[in-house]
Amino acid sequence: MGPIVLTQVATGLSVLAGAVLVKSVMDQKPMAGPFQRCATCNGTGRVTCICSRWSDGDVGCRTCAGSGRMACSSCGGSGTGRPLPVQISVRPPTNRSS
Prior knowledge:
Residues 1-27 form the signal peptide. This protein is mainly alpha-helical. 27% of the residues lie in helices and 6% in strands. The longest helix is centred in the N-terminal third of the chain and has 26 residues, at 3-28.
C-alpha cells in the first residue's frame, strides 16, 4: 500500500470515529436543551406555507419568500417548545367568624 492509500484510510477512520463520538454525545444530551421538539414542525422550525394550499402549481408569497415554507406558528421558528409565562395569584383565606 502506498502512502496515499494509508492517508485515505486514516482519514476515513477518523471521520467514522468523529461521527460515532457526535452520535454518542447527541444521544446523551440533545442540542434542544431543556425544551422538547415542537410537535407541529418536528423541530425544524418551518411548516408548509398557507399559499401552497390554494396554489395551482406556483408557490410563493411574501410570508415564505417563494420557498413554500414559513416559520412555525407553534414554536415561532425555534423548533423547540416554548414555556408559557403564567402568573398565579393566591388570595389569603378570609377568617369567617360566626
